[in-house]
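User: Just a sanity check before I run the rest of the batch. Below are the structure tokens for the first item. I only need the designed sequence back.
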């Protein structure tokens, strides 16, 4: 029997917390409500949580620290809620491992759509580093990559970049994260243009020029995300 999804809402505004709960609650979704970080941490420790909606400013601390600590042991999707729309805060949240960032005030229906999209995201992985996305078959174990059954030749750098993207579907990865992970041996000496060029080459190889289907999306000013839906 399929297990219901459980969403944890960590938001100190009682009215907003209740509004989110009522908007998201349905037959196959359970809602857990917390009004501070301590309560949120307790629920996360003792329940099986599939997604966290997390306010940044809470009575007993900062949501960023909660996210950072959570990421030490879990990859559960996290969506930040905040009244601050400064770019530096958005980037901070995403760099800490958040999957999405919504600024207040916001539409509850838009929040619901983003939550449902986050819950739907999944990589079809057979356990041997083989991923299937429509016409793409990516075998990182044997280093065989196909588009419409046609072999794609990828450089080592392109393979590393693509694997990071496909194993974090729907998550916005900053340029700094990608550079650090793909060119880790070269560190700070890497020209940022190298990432732009590699992304461009990957798009040319895995996407169809005259097709609306795009896999790699640019999040301007931040980085890139891999689309699976």
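Assistant: Here's the designed sequence for the first item:
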């Amino acid at each position: 029997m399929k297990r219901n999804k459980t969403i944890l809402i960590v938001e100190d505004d009682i009215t907003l917390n209740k509004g989110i709960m009522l908007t998201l609650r349905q037959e196959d979704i359970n809602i857990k409500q917390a009004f501070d970080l301590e309560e949120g941490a307790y629920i996360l420790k003792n329940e099986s949580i599939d997604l966290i909606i997390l306010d940044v400013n809470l009575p007993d601390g900062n949501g960023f620290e909660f996210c950072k600590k959570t990421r030490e042991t879990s990859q559960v999707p996290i969506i930040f809620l905040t009244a601050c729309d400064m770019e530096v805060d958005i980037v901070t949240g995403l760099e800490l491992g958040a999957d999405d960032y919504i600024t207040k005030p916001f539409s509850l229906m838009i929040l619901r759509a983003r939550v449902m999209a986050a819950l739907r995201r999944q990589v079809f992985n057979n356990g041997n580093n083989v991923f299937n996305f429509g016409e793409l078959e990516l075998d990182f174990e044997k280093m065989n990559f196909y588009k419409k059954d046609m072999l794609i030749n990828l450089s080592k750098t392109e393979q590393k970049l693509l694997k990071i993207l496909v194993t974090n579907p729907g998550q916005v990865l900053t340029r700094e994260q990608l550079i650090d992970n793909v060119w880790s041996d070269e560190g700070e000496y890497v020209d940022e243009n190298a990432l732009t060029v590699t992304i461009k080459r990957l798009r040319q190889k895995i996407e169809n020029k005259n097709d609306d289907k795009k896999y790699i999306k640019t999040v301007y000013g931040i980085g890139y995300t891999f689309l699976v839906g």
